[in-house]
Amino acid sequence: MAASTDLQSQLKLQDQVAQALKNERYRHGALNIETIEVRAVVLNDKVVDVVNQEKNRATELIEDFMIAANEVVARMLETNKVSSIRRVVKTPERWGRIVELAAKQGEQLPAEPDSKALNEFLIKRKAADPDHFADLSLAVIKLMGPGEYVLERPGDPEQGHFGLAVQDYTHSTAPNRRFADLVTQRLIKAVLANQSAPYSDDELAAIALTCTLKEDAARKVEREMAKRIAAVAMSGRIGETFDAIVTGVTPHGTFVRVLKPAVEGLLAQGQQGADVGDKLRVKLTRIDIQRGYIDFVRD
Fold first, then answer.
1. Where are the alpha helices (DSSP H) in the chain?
2. What gap in Å lies between CA 132 and CA 146, rounded to an integer?
3. Mean pLDDT in residue range 54-59
4. CA-to-CA distance for 129 and 170, rounded, in angstroms?
5. 257 near 242, Cβ under 8 Å?
6. For residue 240, is it within any domain?
7. Residue 276 falls within a domain, yes or no?
8. Which residues are 250's β-sheet partners?
């Protein structure tokens, strides 16, 4: 960077454009959410801790350009009346619980899902309590429900991406690692070459379903390995107490995430009445590294 003024000016321009794109999305109601990603700290070939993976303006620049590219591609395919695979996040499955969380913070959200109103609430909370904003973000993400791939034909009602506040959105920027992106780029190639689409609607629908299922399976494997790494890192801390937030309430149990370090586990005792977003004090009681089990009890 220091050796090239041209490269410096190019990156500064890209940064300005990325921030402008982000602000425009926020203006339309895209959610200002702060997610937590963790990485293992390895010392002498042993996992000794897990720490938060910090984001910066460089990672934001890449994300903002990827989002913009995905919107442009989706609109281009729509304009050319080509069926495509869209990435959608439907309106939150548990909007009522999000409204409850806002009420606990002294804010009122509308009874019906409204991304712009939700984002205004999130911005207020980030300014008022930045240290715990990631915890609120996590609760909102869990309550919105997962994204999925769907077939969209020309003229179909747009399902949209609630979290990004956009109606036209696909995945097209990672053809080297996601099959949905590869399929989308094949559709683009056919349009540019004035050729017929390489897939029928039925084939695209089947691909969309398969991509959703495989993504869920991959996320499960990733989560299982992360749990094993976390279990190793926490193995010497049994009996300690931690501040935590409830991240999930399922038929399989109630789950909490310790705030520091960012480790998730089962609330094995004291789960009655706990719901997503509740803040608790918990004690670490059991570790099973082979299964990746981390058990807490309410303190």
1. 5-27, 57-79, 95-104, 115-128, 133-144, 179-192, 201-234
2. 23
3. 85
4. 33
5. no
6. yes
7. yes
8. 253
Return the structure tokens found at 208: 């969309």
In the chain, the amino acid numbered 205 is: A
Going by pLDDT thresholds of 50, 70 and 90, the confidence category of residue 27 is confident
When comparing pLDDT for 265 and 30, which is higher? 265
In angstroms, the CA 169 to CA 203 distance is: 19
Residue type, position 258, single letter: V
Q: Residue 283 and residue 93: Cα distance in Å, rounded?
A: 31
Q: How does DSSP classify residue 111?
A: S
Distance CA 115, CA 104 (A): 19
pLDDT at 36 over 80: no
Residue 34: strand, helix, or coil: coil
Q: How does pLDDT run across 237-256, given as a tens digit for each residue?
A: 999 999 998 888 888 899 99
Is residue 88 domain-resident?
no
Mean pLDDT of 121-126: 86
- Residue 228 covered by a domain: no
Question: 151 near 208, Cβ under 8 Å?
Answer: yes
- The average confidence (pLDDT) of the chain is 88
- The pair of structure tokens assigned to 124 is 């207020």
Which residues are CB-neighbours of 147 under 8 A, at least 6 positions away? 87, 88, 89, 161, 163
66 is written with which tokens? 């990827």
Please state whether 193 falls in left (phi above 0), alpha (psi between -120 and 50) or beta.
alpha
pLDDT of residue 82: 96
> Is the whole-model pTM more than 0.70?
yes
Cα–Cα dist 205/14, whole Å = 36
Residue range of the domain that includes 259: 235-299
- The tokens describing 92, both together, are 């939150």
Q: Please tell me the total count of domains within the chain.
A: 1
- pLDDT of the residue at 165: 65
pLDDT level of residue 131 (50, 70, 90 thresholds): low
Give the CATH number for residue 262: 2.40.50.140
